[in-house]
Amino acid sequence: MSSGYCSLDEDLEYFFTAKTSFFRKPQNKHLEKNVATKEEQKPKILSEKEIKQKIEEYNGKAKNCLGMRLNQDGTYTGFIKVHLKLRRPVTVPAGIRPQSIYDVLKEVNPAEITDKRTSFYLPLDAVKQLHISSVTTVNEVITSLLKKFMVIDNPQKFALFYQTKKGNDVNLQKLKENEHPLLIRLLAGPDTHASSFALKENETGEVEWDAFSVPELQNFLIILEKEEKERIQQVQQRYTMFRQKLEQTLKMVGKPG
Q1: pTM, whole model, 2 decimals?
Q2: With contact defined as beta carbons under 8 Å apart, do 122 and 84 qualify?
Q3: For residue range 217-241, what is the model confidence (pLDDT) as tens digits?
């Protein structure tokens, strides 16, 4: 946490390391170049018989006891793996202990414990296993993920994507809020290397500034001002270096042979 700076405003606290950027730069340029977005597909509806057959096939291939369980009411439960691919900082309550099992069971809201807020980046490409039901929607998955990481940002700022890989190519399909991820997992099979889910910012072409709170917008201004100063310094250093080289060249040319 060294070599950073912070901005304090009464009950608001933001901390950024020296590498903080308003938008996180892609870590793997080769991977980013091969990312494509699939068109939306209509969700498939399975009969009770097809569901039972699919679950048996799924469990026959599943490892590490991560199979699916069919319930008497026709619903089923299982696990999905979600990769967090967030490029912007998230907001969490500041100065409180991690949630205990008691807090989770009682559904304690961390935002109600304190008014202090901290913004920081979640680990790039962190992975979270979620145990969900066949009736769990995309919106509920997003809300559950945010709660597990104690993120208090508006869930509308985020979107869940279905990610498939084939060689070096990665395809992303944005899921609708009312879709059911466990059904998608069931149809795809248990191989999480070939397909998985990714939580990303809800990109709509333009940034929806109305979805951000006033403290968040003020925080973005701090980051932008810092980046502007750094960019100006980089340009000045570049031109200073060019000037020095030109002056050295002129001195060499002006010397008598």
Answers
A1: 0.61
A2: yes
A3: 888 888 888 889 989 999 999 999 9
